[in-house]
């Protein structure tokens, strides 16, 4: 019978293979579709079909990422560790300062997944759009609230209604877990703060 340690190693290996294989391949397909969608010579019918396909690929990417997250959770990686890994993965070209509380203690996995995905989407936006050289990430528990704050020194331009920057997706995820999102963005950089009560999501 497989022991707990061997099972954890298998889960960690599978999560890594999904991340380095299928997830990255799907992201590549998504980028290719974005290029085709941006082609000024594409017909309206072609754009409609490509947009539908892009939504499908986006959903598949999210499903794979969800499975990766839960596999890692089964090997006792905390939300704090997941955010740290994601920052290292997506923000490897900038200086990152991390100030993270250990906040896993009994929180629902779906709840922590949404927080992780919000952080991941912000990191991706910074990497692609912000032209930042420095990023600060804070995660704290204070008076029954979980507060995630991510600040960069980039060029700004992030607003909640801007789908190009993924802000709508981030806002929707925040609303889904009963959180509030504050975005301050100007030419000196962008600060995004998520505040959400965690007591309702504790086991």
How would you describe what is shown here?
This protein is an alpha+beta fold. The chain is 54% helix and 19% strand. The protein is built from 5 helices and 5 strands, in the order αααβαββαββ. The protein has helices at residues 4-37, 44-74, 79-90, 109-130, 167-176, and strands at 95-100, 134-142, 145-152, 180-186, 189-197. Strands 1-2-3-5-4 form a 5-stranded mixed β-sheet, with helices on one face. β1, α4 and β2 form a beta-alpha-beta unit. α4 (109-130) runs antiparallel to α5 (167-176).
Short description:
By secondary structure, the chain is of the alpha+beta class. It contains five helices and five strands. The two termini are 30 Å apart.
Distance N to C terminus = 30 Å
* Low-confidence sequence ranges: 1-9
Secondary-structure-derived class: alpha+beta
Strand order of the largest sheet: 1-2-3-5-4
Overall pLDDT confidence: 81
- Approximately what portion of the residues adopt beta-strand conformation? 15-25%
- The H-and-E topology, N to C, reads as HHHEHEEHEE
What is the total tally of β strands? 5
Radius of gyration: 18 Å
The rough form would be described as: globular
How many distinct helices?
5
Helix content: 40-55%
Q: Please outline the major beta sheet.
A: 5 strands, mixed
